[in-house]
Amino acid sequence: MFNQKRLHPAAIFFNFIKVLRESLFALVLGFITFKDDSLFYFILIASGIFILMLTFSILSWYRYTYRIEDEELRIEYGIFIRKKRYISKNRIQSIDLTSGVIHRIFKLTKVQIETAGSGNGAEASLKAVKRSEGEALRQELKTASTRRAEVHDEHVELTSPSLRITFKRLFLAGSTSGSIGVLFALMAFGFSELEQFIPDHYYDSTVEWAIGLSVIFIVVLVIIVLIFLWLLGIAGTMIKYGNFTITKNDNELFITRGLLEKKQVTIPLKRIQAVGIQESIIRQPLGYVTIFAEIAGGSMDKGEDFSSILFPIMKADEVGDFFNTFLPEYAAENQDMIPLPKRSRKFYLLRSSLPVIIIGAGIGYFLTQFVWVPILLLIGSLYMGVLRHKDGGFYQDGQRLTIRYRTFSKNTVTMYHKRLQAFEKKQYLVQAKQDLATMRLSIIGKMGMGKHFIIKEMDESHTDQLTDWYSYRK
Amino acid sequence: MRKPPVNTIATDAIKAWKITAWIYVGILWLVTVGLAVLTYFFEFSNWFTVVALVISGLSTYLFVFLFPKLRWKRWRYEVFDQEIYIQHGILIVSRTLVPMIRVQHVDTQQGPILKKYQLASVTISTAATTHEIPALLDEDASELRDRISALARVDEDDV
Q1: Per the CB 3.0–4.6 Å rule, which of A221, B99, B102, B154 could disulfide with B126?
Q2: ipTM value of the model?
């Protein structure tokens, strides 16, 4: 049905970029070393290497073929050592299509095929094929698994529900993303690295100039920089989550996103280990939440978070509808969390404020005029402690367990009994005296690593109740 | 309140742990001696040596004499048909339940120190966690490994 095919010739270009990027460091190093005496020879050798790399790229494109045969995807590749990789249709877990900017110019797409095996990369990655070809490939590879599933699943929905992010929401997501902090850190880091390359003379005079300026000017400058970073954060979110659309097909979720780089991701429902609602500290007062899921296996993409985003932003009161439509088994009917006992609050306060107290005491002792900084931080950390205690809790109903905890953002995570890999109850002496205990739940995370949820200082009777719930030995 | 697991690990575990602890503490003592020698030749303040001595002495007491015994006393395990139940921890007591159907594989391991006392450790891995039972008699360990491996061979529902 599918003949033996090669990738689109644009793959040569991607191959070339890839080898070039890998050797860029060596090239730059070589350039710096030889730039004075033997630049001519260096250029000669470098161009030789260039041609070699180009040949290599063309050859590896030429030798890379794929076809679908006997219910298998068969890939053959390798220049000197011929490698063949056969992936059975039944074993394919998900097929993701990604189109970067260059892909989109030529109407191409990258096809990544994943099986349950854990590892860093996808099992097979077709760097560049025509978009129509990519879609056809996905359809063809999927048929086996869906046909199988339909036998099990009696009530297959005919219409596939779908939800798309509105521009207003997207903008809101960007402006509340909180990536401003990350960007700021990155910039500070970038600047400290850059410092080495700016000649001392300029650097010193610039610093002198800056010190000579009035305080107001500096404040204005800082505000401008912050606004710039904030706008950058908005742009980043827009690019990443632009046109975010989630669609439910009978046994999988299908997500399309990205303004520049278009990404299509399939999430088989079977692989979802837990589903969570995150209320970040900026979005919570506005009543907005993010929906995420923990998904077993799969590869980790660059710039991807550990949890997969199912929907970047929505109003808290829309969550119920969302779950009813897309993940009915995770829909929450009654979410009256059983809160942490009052007596555990002091643990939370102490834990969140202790590092601040220790560092703050040092600052207060040595830099008396800045003593207000640790005091402000202390108040902030105590408030965080109160919030963490207030938000901690759980709710168990049948096979389903929902827990709520806060680090900075408030997370409400729902998981099923069968998804839990291990259950741990921890207790130290002080906790034991107060009938408190810490609970640790483990589920499968990305890349075959575990993901652990910890709730500290629960009422001991509650941890014991959950231990009994979890135990297979009734 | 659930009862703690019943089985203790091998008594020789204490000896094995002591040897391991001696190796680490030995490094500390070497540093201390080195510092004392340096102080003698270069006339540093004696305080460095005193502090190093106190640290080495204290860690020797804690890690060689106190902790192995406490650790052994706390370490319990029990293997049921449906799940594995483990308790350990000196200051923080932790009790873990690992269902049999979640076990992916079981390993036994034996380093030179454990071998001296005919001991072995059993490592139980799930898709998300690993749990180690540190020192069992050699034959107990392999018997346990085989038993868990057989019990774990239950029909698995989707992962």
Answers
A1: B102
A2: 0.82
